[in-house]
Target: DNA polymerase IV
Amino acid sequence: MTKDLPLRKIIHVDMDAFYASVEQLDNPELIGKPLAVGGGEKRGVVSAASYEARKFGVRSAMSGYMAKRNCPDLIFVPPRFARYKEISQKIRAIFYDYTDLVEPLSLDEAYLDVTVNKKGNPSASLLAKEIRERIYNELGLTASAGISINKFIAKVASDYNKPNGQKTVNPEEVLAFLEELEIRKFYGVGKVTAEKMYKVGIFTGLDLKNKSLEFLEKHFGKSGAYYYHVVRGIHNSPVKPNRIPKSVGAERTFNENLSSEIFMLERLENIANELERRLKKSKIAGKTITLKIKYSDFTLQTRSKTIPYFIADKDLILEIAKELLYQEKLENSVRLLGISLANLNTPDKKKPEQESISVQLKFMF
Model:
């Protein structure tokens, strides 16, 4: 029963094919054409794909070679992250006209808590529509939105009527919505977890709901409790205006595969320089250094080391990254290297959670 759930009015706004849409916005000749941001016919990985390209199976994280094979007419453009960030800041400025409770997840998506909002509008659905219209009228880009009682359901709903649409899941519709949902559409259930769920007879939200907490914890560990609760509409995490980063990193994909550690050291130094710049900009340091290695066959390996003190200096970071590189023999030639710093010294300033709204209030979604 949703009467037992804390009710908020949450909007999840997700820009439609954001990077690709910005490229088409700035270069009208690309409109209507299959477009990939990043990648290349021989090297690199696709960062984003236009909807025209997606029809051919082109997806983010796909190799440029495979993307071109799927779509021979595919156009590759280099990413312009400074431009994407510029547009993202304008989008967020629109969000802040409605509420200060904005939690950005990335440049192209964010949660908004509009339970109490600056417009005094009781309808979260109408607010979402107005926000999407403003983004289009002011910036020329389309966005989709999901609206519901918590972040989990709002995020799932935002994917329903893409592109340029929205879906509202009202309080009384929550449980039926989740029961009918295909398990692979649950946020947090990736391809590997979905396959694991299929093997134990979980294909829909209802199948998941029929499993006990003990069963889910046995098969999915700590995530079992999460799945048990979200399928019942229970996800009490508030919208957090100031999300504290868990890690900071930098990485590079190479034009040619590297087969010797000696050739990798120069690249690692450049990556360490970039990481130091990002750490200084955020005014943070960390204790856990992780070296990320992606081989030519796309298998991924990480090697980590935790030290007893916080660091942000590129020389110290590079020294530990070198140690991790030489820790064991490389399995194959390398196409990507990355360094990240975790266990950060970010201030753990817990903000008071937004008050749960009493179910007795007249909710107008």
Summary: The longest strand covers residues 247-258. Residues 18-80 form a domain with the MutS, DNA mismatch repair protein, domain I fold (CATH 3.40.1170.60). The CA atoms of residues 174 and 233 lie 7 Å apart. The first helix runs from residue 18 to 26.
